[in-house]
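Predict the 3D structure for this chain.
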Amino acid sequence: MTRYLVVFALFILSMITYIDRVCISSAKEPIAASLGLSDSAMGVVFGAFALGYAIAQIPSGWFADRFGPRLALAIVVSAWSLLTALTGVARGFTSLVAIRFLFGIGEAGAFPGAARTFYNWLSPAERGLANGILFSGSRIGAAISFPLLAWMLARTGWRMSFVWLGVIGLAWTGFWLLWFRDHPSKPAERPQQSHSPQDGFWSVFRSRGMALAMAQYFSSNFTFFICLSWMHPYLKQHYQLNAAEAAAYSMAPLVLGATAQWTAGAMVDILYRRPALRSWSRRLPAMLGFALAAAGMLALTHAATPLAAVVCFTLAAFGADLTISPSWAFCMDIGGKNSGAVSGAMNMLGNFGSFVSATTFPVLYQYTGGASAYFLLAAVLNLISIACWSRMRSLRWPSA
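Done. Predicted structure below.
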């Protein structure tokens, strides 16, 4: 029972993570108006988070491996919650970029810490669905953030909205420190792990499987990050929507993304439990996901109405989200006791993809007069990732 509560606690953390992360997209207009920032400047602000988040992935994953996820998650959640609150006191472009960059560094340890938690508490046959539940929280949190911020902005303004969001994260930290322990206290609850020798982090990091995992995760984040950054402003401006309409449309891809997380997680575990299909348990859901993401991005180039565009965004986001659970399960397979750092390495390059996505979209839009060039680029990256997964194999299969 305790391990289910661990998964639930991390599900709530994942929701908080993405509410704090996506809220700046909903608050883009009042922030830009208050601080006098252009769309290109806001692209840098969006990208600053992704850059800070990316470069701190390996150190934060190593910290969770070395000192345990209880301490690691308590520190990183406290740090990013304080920086979320500090976003509300930014006075210009420089201070806003600096705060969001440091906020990204603070949030970097969230999912590597969760990966190490799952390694400590769950067997390999349970990790697919657990990762699906974990990352579904991020999508639900992102979806909630659009109407939540619309409501908060109307009542408290953008500055106080960020302060209140920071308080929520600090409350979660207090609960985590009081309740969670790094390992199950009862021997019967401890997952059976592989007894084969564990490779060191740098040995795994230099492997072909790690390189392919990082490359495909770049594409996944490149595709999905548009839903967290420019999708909401794009729908509002391109289709002349009001704030309520844009918020309602923007929720759909994120809510459906949560169902993709559950679907992929269940597929991973079901395939893993069938020895004849075990080698496909990570690959098949991911390859299917990238195929759907490519189709959604290509279809967006012909979307003539906001409803059509949202359907296409939803298909692309659903596909990208199908790739998440198998990606993190794959990192635990090859990482073993280095799961935090190995997962962090993959997430590092993935979030460079987020940074490139956030900064490339407004540039391509400006120079081409539309968003089609961005959508085509994302489709090509997704197709390349299918080829990556066709060659990805776990270095070891731990016992189920």
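The chain has 17 helices and no strands.
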